[in-house]
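Chapter summary example.
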Amino acid sequence: MFRAFATVIRSSYLLVVLITLAKVSQATLQFVRTLGEPRLFGGDALADAFVVVVLLGFWVLALRALGRLALRRELVPDEHLRERPVIAGIVGFACIFGTWMTLLPDWILLTTLPDSLDVNLAAPWALGLMCYAFALLTGEVVLVGGKPARVTS
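The structure predicted for these 153 residues follows.
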């Protein structure tokens, strides 16, 4: 039973890391491209700084998880999954729900864009983005980042 649980958590977490890297690289390229263009109402430095912080946070969290795989370590160690099953379940749920809410707008755009250009999918995409942020932060800081508690009897 534990093997199935660990497989679901690790595979959904890896999917989140890979999709996050793909989406954040696209968003970073779009952001960098718009920095050089003149803006209609002037530039808002505070908004630009916020976007940079968010993009940097996603990059750091996703690359930290991918770095563990590059160093041939487990994405989420077994002892962390055994000692924090509730946190792992919450992270797994956030990963699965976030992936669904991130890929759903992409699927809708691919199937409806040729017929209609009036499609607003900001709400599911933003919800998926928040689930990814929660899953990556909780996964990296709480689930993987913390040391497993020692049980003494």
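To summarize the output: The chain has one domain: 6-144.
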